[in-house]
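B., you asked whether I could sanity-check this one before it goes into the benchmark set. Here's the sequence:
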Amino acid sequence: MACNASKTPLLRAISKRGYAVCPRLVGDTSPISVNVLDNKLVVATAEASVPVSRVSIVLRAGARNEAYDTLGASHLLRLAGSLSTQRSSAFAIARHIQQVGGTLTAWGDREFVGYTVETTTENVETGLCYLQDLLQPAFKPWELKDNSKTLHSQLDAVTTEQRAIELVHKAAFRRGLGNSIYIPRFQLGRISSESLLHYVANNFHAGTAAVVGVGIDNNTLSGFAQNLHFPGAGGSGKTEAAHYYGGDARKDTAGQRAVVAVAGEGAAASNQKEALAFAILKQAVSGQPTKYGKPSGVFGEAVACAGDASVSVKCLNASYSDAGLFGFVAAADGQDIGKAVDFLVRALKSGTVADKDVHRGKALLKARLISNYASDSGLIREIARQASLNRNVLDADALVSAIDAVSVQQVQAAAKKVAGSKLSVGAIGHLAHVPYASELA
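And here's what the prediction gave me:
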């Protein structure tokens, strides 16, 4: 089959580009439309005048839904975005998407697995054709075997900081949200095609999924979503509720560096006011980002009190549908990490935040929010998360108003919630001087 792009006369293509609609201005946000279909599938669109259309199918099939025997299944689902389906081969998908200058990517976290197609607006139908095929994966055994090196490479590329975050989730929730978003090495080659198809049938449900788009008409996307066939159409799609436990998860490795993640109980995304209070708290305690020199904010001051050692620290705030974590991730030499963690925990357990820090946190959060809504790639991830978690999407103005409505007392209540909760510690590296959670209480 010849490439259709080669059949377009050069002058006609130039003329069409010349009359194309100018993309929206930087900082401008798009109106968002949301509707729920009869099968409870949520459809959300931002009808922006952009040259590239983006559409995502978001499925509640993240790592928290894995059983012990299927640990890593969600990682393989992300890999399946480049493999054959029951209708199309991997070669056909790659060929036809690339012929129209598009891309097809997969992403995921503990809650969701998503597939996103990006094409020019006039070729969006081609992208949608192969996007819907991903709801019917084939998991051919020889393809899974051929991609084993890809899995090894992806595991090797996981940073030490991310590994510490995975460990603190394990310590906090044990199972469910405690499952890693990466496949464990002992599971490589052990998950069969039949197990993956069973996992898909249990978790691909219209009632817990969402179809979102940027630069596409809502009626067009609703018609596309109405014709989607989900393997798990007859199931409940319910997820086991998360329980916060706290404790330790440690991994000793060679070297002199140590990375430690410490967190307490945070906010669930279902509680919007509390989730926004924790989001403001994160910005308030993080301080202004600096390329060189000491970090600022409450955590930066705590690191400064620990001495002159070189310590990298960032705030950790993770909100899921029914639970959350709030804390920090610190990295330093193994000899210095213990003292740094001690001072950082004191700041975390203080349970106080100054009024000026709250106001600064609100301003930083609103700036980041508007930046996400003004970027097409950031916008589709934002509405995908909201549509999947809350079954609704708020526009930028509504979210800014909601942030302004959060009081100083609510942010302080969030800080006190973390201070009063049992801590979880995830650590990796040279751990001789890293304290246990019971020693930090």
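One thing to flag: The first helix runs from residue 10 to 18. Otherwise nothing jumped out at me.
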